[in-house]
Amino acid sequence: MLAPLLVDLQHNGAKGLAFNRVHEQPETLETVARHALRHGVGRLLATLTTQPYEESLESLAAIDRQLKGDPFLARCYPGIFFEGNYMSAEYGWRGVHPEQYMRDPSWPEWQALYEASGRRIAKFNVDPSRAGALAAIRAAAAAGILVSMGHCGPEPATIAAAVEAGATLVTHLGNGAPPEIHRHRNPFWTWLADDRIRVGLIPDGYHLPGDFLRTALKIKGDGAYLVSDSASTAGLEPGVYGESEIEEGGFTHMKGNREQLAGAWHQLDRGVERLCELGWPLAAAWRQASAVPAAIAGLQLPPIAEGALAEFALARYSGDGLELEQVVAAGEPVLDAPVHPRML
Predict the structure, then answer these.
(1) Which residues have CB under 8 Å from 219's CB, separation 6+?
(2) What is the DSSP string of 99-127?
């Protein structure tokens, strides 16, 4: 199949590099983009996770400076996702994000981040039950910024109020939650039931079971988009890296705690492969990770047509899995040999 490049709306880094630290490691943008491109991913929202607010300002400014001077990287990174500091501080809901940096949102704080990024932030994550959240959501939505609810357990009435204020997305539905939650009184049901809400899903085979993916995609259709949640440890050899541990096969979790996942090892091509394993035709699975997220983020991908900018992947799926025979970006071939999702 000849297909448009994949679009990843939540990507934290790879190859030992994180977008949080671009101000200290300027090689991050190119290294991560090249790794993602080898796996067919041509558009990324560089995602900043929880750290001191002032350091995020520095990294956002560094990303903006670099993208202004590099048309290739600017095309790879059409925006930024600030997952950041405004989620629940409760254990389980906050995942591996450090509690000490959590804070209540305000539009002045968000606007300062937005301006530091050169207005490249396309999406903010927030717990809508935090003080000031609804006002911040309203102001961000008025500025044309997507607002996503995630790493939080709000009540149904709070979710409804957030949607009325302008929140339209959920960050990686089914994850960023305690291992044990009430069977009925949890936000997953409300997020799934509301047709106005679109949900991100991490389909790497570890974050979500197959039946959860089937259910969410059956309910949401084009209101569900695949994300990688690629961590800074993505693409590294199995082993222990700081507080994270990578097992054979790419399962990444906090050292000594297999219930607490630490982002994903795979790129978004693994999500396509996973849907194919669950019975989706390749074209439909690919679309859920390309055309669907592109439409949600308002991105235009080059058409595969004579005279258009050559950007596409040549992919096939068989009993042996997904294989990318070639990836072309900005008119240039990327691969010198076929690639599959489990390759470094």
Answers:
(1) 192
(2) GGG-----HHHHHHHHHHTTS-EEEEEE-
H-helix segments, the chain:
28-38, 53-68, 71-76, 107-116, 133-142, 156-165, 187-193, 210-220, 269-277, 282-288, 291-297
Cα–Cα distance for residue pair 293/47, rounded to 1 Å: 15
SS3 per residue for 307-318: CCCCCEEEEEEE
* Of the options 3.30.2090.10, 1.10.8.60, 3.20.20.140, 2.40.10.10, the CATH number for the domain spanning 2-303: 3.20.20.140
List, for residues 135-152, the tens digit of each pLDDT value.
999 999 999 999 999 999
Q: What is the mean pLDDT of residues 216-225?
A: 98
- Pair 140, 133: CB distance under 8 Å: no
